[in-house]
Amino acid sequence: MRRPNLISAFLTLVLLTGCAKVYHVASEDVSSYRINKKTSDVGDNSKIEQMIQPYRAELASEMSEVISLAAEPFSKGDRDDPESTLGNWVADAILAQAKLITRKPLDFGICNSGGIRVNGLPAGPLTRGHFYELMPFDNYLVTMRLPGEVIRQLFDRMAASGGWPISAGVSYKIKGGKAQQVMIQGAPLDLARTYEIALSDYLAEGGGALDFLKEYDYENLQIYYRDAMIEQALMMKGIGKSLDARLEGRVENLDQ
Predict the structure, then answer these.
(1) CATH 3.40.190.10: does it fit domain 78-118+137-225+244-253?
(2) Which of 59, 170, 194, 227 has a 20 to 30 Å separation from 18 between CA atoms?
């Protein structure tokens, strides 16, 4: 498990004190604490409570910073309806930041559905805290160059789990748990060519049942996946634009 930064470690315990939510850091199978105003797994007078108390006010201020505005509410999809406005925005945001950092015409970006830890985001002001709730993991944004056959495996894995979010210009249909009619930037998936994609290092290292990616190298862009989303949102705010996303038929489950 990756060592979390101070903010993420603190958020695991107290970001929303008073809510019965569980926050995880770095991977999906780490231990977590449940905290509310009345009770705590670790005790109200614990050493952990004494350690984090001085940072509460500072963190609360940082987490309440307005990062951007959402034009409409964002919602997360499910297996019956795998494409979602929230998933589309996340995939688009990380691809945009990866292109900006690498200055390369990357083919697409993906996010595993399990990495999105909220069911939606509200319309109106979005704070830094919203983005930490959305994705509390300290996973890095990376790029990979992969042969078409491996990309085919990737799409089949996404299909088998009901469909993952993918960036604009890419679409696929799910039939019998397999990916069909995969289109990438206006052309069918070409098994003979190489594609370059943006994703998290968690996935690049085999997470999400992507073991077949382990033998391929990746380039670490030295920015957390979550922070890339924050940077994209800040950029939109800087040019006076609200965050927006729409359903485009990127993922369709024909088995439902």
Answers:
(1) no
(2) 227
